[in-house]
## 1
Amino acid sequence: MAGDARAALLDRCVTFLKQAGFGQLSLREIAAGAGTSHRMLIYHFGSREGLLAEVVRLVETEQRAALVSLVAGDDDPVAVSRQFWQRLADPALASAERLFFEIYAQALYDRSWTKSFRTSVIAAWTGPVEEMFVQLGFEPAEARRRARLGLAATRGLLLDLLITGDRDLLDAAAELFAQLITAPRID
């Protein structure tokens, strides 16, 4: 029961934050927007930071599901990459992505509330992306290397977009990267 209540509360918080933005809202403001009390948020998530880390985890889960869906619906890896980049580069996601990078930065300092984030921020993505490369015919070790490169490069492009807003150049860079990362291995 408690898990169901926690999940429902998290969903309400995510829904509110997607509408209100992820800015510098206090825990009380988030609670009011989600129709609960700040004490319930503390009970379920420990702190504002713990709640926001869980929000990011849920949004990341949605993004991974979207990637899996794109891969299942198209056998052209460059087209899949292009569609996924367009999804990530959607201005509507910018506030959630800024929160992602804020929590990423806090995880670098080993903040206790980022433990689950540190555990999943790389590992949760590499499996689905490695599988995509294996489906393209790459050996598992090569698929693993390409998955990590793809993850790092995509996050770098996204961070650049959030900082500079240079959409045309970064769309072109993402397109070039998709072509390079899916090209057959050259020895």
## 2
Amino acid sequence: MKQVLINNSIFFDQVAILKDGKLEDFFHEEKDAKSLVGNIYKGRVMNILPGMEAAFVDVGLDKNAYLFLDDLLSDKFLKEKNIRKKDAKNISKILKKGDEILVQIAREPIGEKNVAVTTDISISGKYIALIPKSIEVNISKKVKDAEERKRLVAIGKEIMENGNGMIIRTYAQDCTKDAIEKEYRILSSVYEQIEQEFGYSYAPKLMYKSNSLVEKVFMDSIDSSVDEIYVEDKNTKEKLSSMINMCGDELRNIKIVESERSFQEFEVEKQIQTLFERKVELQNGGSIFIDVTEALTVIDVNSGKYVGSENMEETALQLNLAAMEEIARQIRLRNISGIILIDFIDVKSKDNIELIISRAKSAFRDDKAKTNVLGMTKLNLMEITRKKNKENFYNLITQQCSHCSGSGRTASKIYIFLRLESIIKNIRKNTTSEAVVLKSGYIMNSFIQNNCMDIIKKIQQKYSIKIFFRVDENVLTDEIAVEKTGNTEYINSYLNSKIS
């Protein structure tokens, strides 16, 4: 069974995708810091950096965006500017300071890096991605059936107009021409509006805002394999019902359930908590260790308690294959990107090495981020690269520890938001308590008192419950635990007794 769980907290929108109860994908977005990827801007070139083959473009954000030469040299852009490809070896010959250009956010800011933009504009729907000023009709590589590919290409060429091409997505498989054409016309209308506004608006200006998290998940993750969608409110339920109805009969069997406690019922928070951990246990007794550094991520496969067969080679192979499935899942959930090295248990047979490589390619086939399995070295190290478009989850929910100058990490403000609201929501749902005493270690308590009282007030107001904190030196560094709950008079009495 496959379920999609949508959770709306005070500070975050979160979506968990479960398969047979196991967390397969997790998406999150701050309410006050929506994702910028996909946004389209009229930008102004502020500076050219010939040595880096890049330009700084003002799109109206706090920092100027990077535009690299490779993200500038789309065929349609060069055609618009009447520039030959062979003359486009130097960015200074293509752009100059003060130029106004249409760009799209391709990558979120990561660490000290600014957002990155591209001139290769696309607008995504469920069935297609519109590619303006292109005559191409491309089909997703995940559509394997030759006859279906042929049918979709024919549909694409028939409905294409005004020189706007498209990429036909996986979800268009077995879809009717009418449904694809309807979406094509909607997206074409959106781009026409962008073109009109570009002509008379001043740069910098936001021309098109990408979809909300729920809309993105609907377009990218919800298909006929989904059995149930859990939502917290009627508005989200009605919105999803409307989007499903627009898709014809394909998604009509999906059941939408209204539930305020789906994350608790399916133990999603418990599964998310494991994303903190360096060691991940495998079902067969083996384990993997994940170490994220600034330059790359190293994942080590360990045999642990796994015994396997009497043949050492076969034992190592089976453990490596099982580990590969979990590694792909962890990379996806933690949004690990850049260079990834996997240290497998040694196998000697070339056939077995090829089998592991094949399993890796299969495991990453449906990954939304572009992932390349480069092969295996002589030391049984697998090399993988994964496109980086936003901060990885581990860096998001942790921060550098001020007590060890960055050699370790502690829970961030974002994690504290999630943890506190989860605790209070659970208390409000299951008790009539008016107040709660939470205990934490000295470092966590100090951080909450100095940095988080604004969110404490909001949580208190929303759930009508008074929150008190106490230091307990026996509580682990990143833990927040419930010490006492009850009416206000009882809690005040309890706290007074602790003081005296």
## 3
Amino acid sequence: MKINKSVAAALALSALSISSAWSTDKSKTNAGDDVAQHAQRQAAEPSTTPAAGQVSATRVASQAAIFGSPAPAGTATRTVAVIPGMNFVNVASGDSVTFRSEGQEATWKFAESIRGATVDLGVLLPDMPNARGVRVYIERSHLFTGG
């Protein structure tokens, strides 16, 4: 009799797991389709994963967006010359800064930062000469600190 109870319990548990798997299959995704349809559609779509060793331009752009965005040159509060051997530059949260190097110029509007932040200028301005390796230290925002 004890074996029959164990078998009955195992069958009940397996029936519960099957029903939850079936119901998940019928659940709707954010796209409005069933989970199974969604998985089939994703499998049919071509992969956008970059080859090994390559960095996706989209990934770099999304990393840069955390720190602010490009801005029109006329909005800059100051200009910084990026020269060979430069190690860092300090900026204030919310400032727009024009960076110049070897005849090129780009303006960046820094996002307000709660704790302060640091980023490689080459991530923000990948086409700017001498930018790679220059650390940008973004000070804490006065909007969030009340200062």
## 4
Amino acid sequence: MTGAFLPVVNREHKVSITQQIFLAMRGAISSGALEKGSRVSSWQDLSVQLGVSRGTVKRAYDLLKDQGLIVTKGRGGTWVAAEVSEVSTESGPSARTPRGLFYDFEEVPQYFQLGVPAQDQFPSKAWHGAWRTAIATESARPQIYPDPRGLSSLRREVAGYLATARGLSCHPSQVFITSGFAGALGIVLGAMDFRGCKAFVEDPGFPRTRYALQQAGVETIAAPVDHEGVMLPFNESEARLAVITPGQQAPLGMTLSDARRAEVLNWANAANAWIIEDDYAGELQLSGRASPALAADDRFGRVFHIGSFSKTLNPGLRLGFLVVPPALTDLFGTFVGHLAPAGSVVAQQAVQNFMAGGHFYRHLRRMKTLYARRKMLLVESLRRELHPGVRCEFEGALSVRLFFPHSIDDVAVAVEAQKAGLGVLPLSPWFQSRPHGKGLLLGISNVRDRTVREKCQALSRVMASHTYG
């Protein structure tokens, strides 16, 4: 009944009053102190009872509504939802750690989720046709072991695509089909035996790359990033490797400048070191002509180029490609033959069919136009909804970046947003240095005209509850 539960608020606490009310009521619903289907005070009445502003309580109620914990019935009052999903009230590290780029493996992508292509604009008819042909081809194929480097037809198609779209001329023998970026990274680390070595990684940079290197026994050295891209600390003479995102820096979005490209390549040559180019979305640079791959300028044979079909076609394919310097093709051929052969022949054949039919190039052109429009749609909506203390950056990359004052806990904000189906990522885990930037990363690929304002309002409420309540 109303009045049966009254949240306790502490004005001296560092947690905002909005968040205190939200957490207290969520806990009461979880414990049963507020029973399913029971009526609760309106936000107007509760504000009077607690002696706080109406807006503060309304934001807390909006958060509860976003999680499906309460329902409002107009003049009929506010009620605990009759069917409430299990609510987690943990406060330990597992509850405060966002799930990275993968979220829930069994669910559809969340709004603002990074790393996934547009779900509503995929050329399904051509894609399904490519798969039907691939299945028919496979049924007629002799039952022998396939080339561990990948189907020769797909490797030729990838080599042709790289020459056209990324300015990288390579022979198909240099191309290896991999299990996405992670598979290609594992092949390079294993074949080159980098265990025990030091590697430069961008700061900020993709956390999973850093963790993968560390798991492989590689010590990572933070290389700062400015408006021209990564700045390798050349005084660190023991580094044998650099892993960088020159096409679109992850997460800040700038393209590596011509001067820095030359510096990085000259360093690798002089230091007898190597570069792993993560070209995670190089072909989807949204403004102007895409800059060529770093490997296109490699005169010394020092760059491993890694690309993926995850962000252009489908992450579920688990298909990517690795281009190695010509002198290393035999070494890598032996390695993948023993430890990391290419995956599903049917999937490889389907992608090859899709590319050979010209569908992949047309799809990329459409996506560049679509993503540029969706990015500006999102930015315009955010500018209407954001608190003035939040800075918005959107140049480069397939994301919009929101930057918070340093006192804000961006991980807590991201956790709360993800629970509400808003797939933002916190910015701070991308940094190694301290103090580090804080904010959120918002994907643009699945922004929709009809829903973007509502979603930005919901995100604004989450942020306000942690920052300005």
